Amino acid sequence: MSDDADPTRSVEFRVLQAMKRVLTDVIKDTTTPPGMKHPLSDATIENIRQCLKLISAREGELAEAAGKPRSLRPHYADEPQTSTVVSIKNIGRPTKKNDDG
Q1: What would the pLDDT profile of 33-75 be if each residue is shown by its tens digit?
Q2: CA separation, residue 62 to residues 28, 50, 66, 78, 99 (Å)
Q3: Cβ–Cβ contacts within 10 Å for residue 9, how many?
Q4: pTM of the prediction?
Q5: pLDDT value at residue 1
Q6: pLDDT tens digits for 15-26?
Q7: SS3 for 45?
Q8: Contact 16/58 with Cβ under 8 angstroms?
Q9: Phi/psi at 56 (nearest 5 deg)?
Q10: The organism sits in which domain of life (predicted)?
Q11: SS3 for 46-89, per residue?
């Protein structure tokens, strides 16, 4: 399979994933308890947010270009279904009734 067919195998997609992982690790490592001053400036925090938004948007564009679903989020068993499954097993031609009156 070529890199063009599967966006998750492209170098660009892997770079985006690595950048997202590093940024989220920075967030986790620098998060402070409530009430304490954060070691990063407000501007830096906002820049990290903007970078993560751009990364997510580009990942979505790559997935869409490859015909993959944009939503790569997990789905839970107890999550409400957005679609309904209809069985076609019993669908058939209507039977004709003889009107031998």
Answers
A1: 888 998 999 999 999 999 999 999 998 888 888 777 665 566 6
A2: 27, 18, 6, 30, 61
A3: 13
A4: 0.60
A5: 42
A6: 999 999 999 999
A7: helix
A8: yes
A9: -60, -40
A10: Bacteria
A11: HHHHHHHHHHHHHHHHHHHHCCCCCCCCCCCCCCCCCCCCCCCC
**Strand, coil or helix: what is 33?**
coil
Tokens 């925090």, residue located: 45
85: tokens are 């499954």
Q: How many CB atoms lie within 10 A of CB 2?
A: 7
The Cα–Cα gap between 47 and 43 comes to 6
CB 2 within 8 A of CB 8: no
Total length of the chain: 101
Q: Could you give the C-alpha distances from 71 to 12, 67, 94, in angstroms and in order?
A: 19, 12, 40
One-letter amino acid for residue 36 of the chain: M
Contact criterion met (CB below 8 Å) for 59 and 13? yes
Please count the other Cβ atoms lying within 10 Å of the Cβ belonging to residue 59.
19
Taking the alpha carbons at both ends of the chain, their separation in whole angstroms is: 67
